[in-house]
C-alpha cells in the first residue's frame, strides 16, 4: 500500500447503494476517517447522513454509476442489483471493484451461480435448469422432474419471492415465469453462514461460522448465533469450504457464503452474497474487526483485521410489527434499552411495514444461552409501530 487512507483526501471509496449495509460501512469509514461517497435512488436512504458526498441516482443505470465513481480509489456495493456493465467499464479505467464485475454477473443469476459451483466441483444440491415454467411443468408431467423440489427463479427474486418448495402439482400454479432451477430438497440439519474477505493479493480471512436458528413455527431465521453448536471439526470444514468458494470466484472484498449441513453430515453450498451480509452483523460486537471494517480494509489495501470471536454473540432482526404501516415509532425502548450486553442498530428507515427490516440488535454474554436470552428479551420488548 502506497499511502495511508486515513484522513487522506486522495482516497475515496465509492459505494453503490445507500441502505443499512452501506450505513454500517459508513460508520466504520467515519471511525477510521476514510472518505466515502454514496449513490442511492432514494433521498431518504439510510446513508443520506454521514456520507462525505451523497448522490441521488440509480445504481442500475450504467452511465450514472460510471460517472458517480470517477476518480474513486475503489468501488464497493451493498446491493447486488447494481449495473455490472458499469463495473466492467470502471475496471477497464483501473478502478478496482469489490466485487469484480465477473463475480457480480454470476451471482446476479441463480442459474449461473449453480452452474458455477458444478463447474468448479464445489458441493451443492442436485438441480435441473429450465428455460421457463412451461418447460418445468412439462418435465413434471412427463416424470422427468420428480417432486418435491425447491424452485428458484434465475433472476429478479428478492426476500423470499423467487424461492418456493414445490411438493405437489398444484404448487406449480403460483410460480412466476422465467428461467429457473429445480433443486433437490436437502435434508438440512443446520444452516451456517461464513463471511470471507479476500484482498487484491489473493489472500483471505474468514470470520467464525455463524448458525441460523429458525423460529420453531414461523419458518424464518429468528437468531443468528456464534459460536454454532456444531463440533469444532465440522466448523473447520465449513470455513475451509467457504474459503474454497471465495477463491474459486477470485473475488475481491466480502463474500458471505451460505452453507447447508445435512443430516448425513455433508456440506453443501447454497448461495453467496458478494457484500456485507445479515449473517455478519454480529461481528460488530462479537469480533475485534467487524465485516464492515474488513471490507474497508480490503478496499483500501490494508492488512486484514483480527476476525476471532471475542465473546458469544446473538443477533436478532428488528422488524415492523404486524398491522402497522406508516411513519415509524419505536415503542418499548424503556425496557429494551435496559437489557444488559445488548446493542441496537436502527437503520433510519422513515416508513415501517409488517416484517420490514428496520434494524437489528446484537446481544453478547458469557455464554450463547445467556446472549440468546438477552437478544430475545430486548427484541420482545421493542415494538416497531406506526
Ligand atoms: P433467498 O435468496 O430468498 O435467501 P435461498 O436460496 O437462500 O433464497 O433460500 C432460502 C431458504 O430456503 C434457505 O435458507 C433454506 O432454508 C431454504 N432452502 C433453499 N434451498 C433449499 C434446498 N435445496 N433444500 C431445502 N431447503 C432449501
Provide tags for this entry.
386 residues; alpha+beta; Rossmann fold; D-amino Acid Aminotransferase, Chain A, domain 1; 3 domains; five-stranded parallel beta sheet; 11 helices
Explain the overall architecture.
This protein has helices at 20-31, 62-68, 84-92, 101-107, 110-119, 133-142, 232-249, 283-286, 291-299, 333-336, 368-381; strands at 12-16, 35-40, 53-56, 74-77, 97-98, 127-130, 149-153, 163-166, 180-184, 188-198, 204-206, 210-214, 221-226, 253-262, 267-273, 313-319, 326-327, 329-331, 342-346, 351-352, 357-364, 383-385. Strands 10, 11, 12, 13, 14, 15, 16, 19 and 21 form a nine-stranded antiparallel sheet that branches. The chain has a five-stranded parallel sheet with strand order 3-2-1-4-5. Strand 1 (12-16), helix 1 and strand 2 form a beta-alpha-beta unit. The radius of gyration is 21 Å and the shape is globular. The chain has 386 residues and is an alpha+beta fold. The mean pLDDT is 96. It folds into three domains: 12-98, Rossmann fold (3-Layer(aba) Sandwich), CATH 3.40.50.20; 126-184, ATP-grasp fold, A domain (Dna Ligase, domain 1, 2-Layer Sandwich), CATH 3.30.1490; 188-385, D-amino Acid Aminotransferase, Chain A, domain 1, CATH 3.30.470.20. Adenosine-5'-diphosphate (ADP) is lined by residues 125, 150, 160, 163, 183, 185-186, 188, 191, 258, 270-271. Residues 125, 150, 160, 163, 183, 185-186, 188, 191, 258, 270-271 line the site of adenosine-5'-diphosphate.
Amino acid at each position: 500500500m502506497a499511502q495511508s487512507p486515513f484522513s487522506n483526501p486522495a482516497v475515496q471509496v465509492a459505494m453503490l447503494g445507500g441502505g443499512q449495509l452501506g450505513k454500517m460501512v459508513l460508520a466504520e469509514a467515519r471511525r477510521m476517517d476514510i472518505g466515502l461517497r454514496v449513490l442511492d435512488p432514494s433521498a431518504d436512504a439510510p446513508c443520506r447522513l454521514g456520507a462525505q458526498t451523497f448522490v441521488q441516482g440509480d445504481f442500475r443505470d450504467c452511465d450514472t454509476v460510471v460517472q458517480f465513481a470517477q476518480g474513486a480509489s475503489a468501488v464497493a456495493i451493498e446491493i447486488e442489483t447494481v449495473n455490472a456493465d458499469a463495473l466492467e467499464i470502471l475496471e477497464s479505467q483501473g478502478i478496482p471493484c469489490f466485487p469484480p464485475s465477473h463475480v457480480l454477473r454470476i451471482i446476479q443469476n441463480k442459474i449461473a451461480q449453480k452452474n458455477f459451483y458444478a463447474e468448479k466441483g464445489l458441493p451443492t444440491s442436485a438441480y435441473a435448469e429450465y428455460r421457463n415454467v412451461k418447460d418445468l411443468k412439462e418435465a413434471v408431467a412427463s416424470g422427468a422432474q420428480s417432486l418435491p423440489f425447491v424452485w428458484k427463479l434465475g433472476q429478479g427474486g428478492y426476500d423470499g419471492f423467487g424461492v418456493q418448495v414445490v411438493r405437489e402439482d398444484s404448487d406449480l400454479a403460483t410460480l412466476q415465469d422465467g428461467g429457473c432451477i429445480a433443486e433437490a430438497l436437502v435434508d438440512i440439519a443446520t444452516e451456517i453462514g461464513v463471511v470471507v474477505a479476500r484482498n487484491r493479493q489473493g489472500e483471505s480471512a474468514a470470520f467464525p461460522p455463524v448458525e441460523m436458528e429458525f423460529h420453531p413455527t414461523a419458518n424464518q431465521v429468528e437468531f443468528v448465533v456464534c459460536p454454532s453448536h456444531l463440533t469444532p471439526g465440522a466448523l473447520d470444514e465449513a470455513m475451509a469450504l467457504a474459503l474454497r468458494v471465495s477463491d474459486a470466484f477470485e473475488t475481491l472484498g466480502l463474500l458471505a457464503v451460505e452453507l447447508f449441513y445435512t443430516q448425513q453430515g455433508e456440506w453443501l453450498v447454497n448461495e453467496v452474497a458478494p457484500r456485507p451480509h445479515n449473517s455478519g452483523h454480529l461481528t460488530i460486537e462479537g469480533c475485534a474487526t467487524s465485516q464492515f471494517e474488513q471490507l474497508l480494509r480490503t478496499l483500501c489495501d490494508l492488512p486484514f483485521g483480527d476476525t476471532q470471536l471475542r465473546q458469544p454473540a446473538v443477533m436478532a432482526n428488528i422488524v415492523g410489527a404486524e398491522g402497522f404501516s406508516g411513519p415509524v415509532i419505536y415503542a418499548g425502548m424503556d425496557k429494551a434499552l435496559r437489557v444488559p450486553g445488548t446493542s441496537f442498530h436502527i437503520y433510519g428507515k422513515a416508513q415501517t411495514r409488517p416484517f420490514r427490516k428496520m434494524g437489528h440488535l446484537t446481544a453478547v454474554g458469557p455464554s450463547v444461552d445467556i446472549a440468546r436470552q438477552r437478544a430475545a428479551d430486548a427484541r420482545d420488548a421493542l415494538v416497531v409501530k406506526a
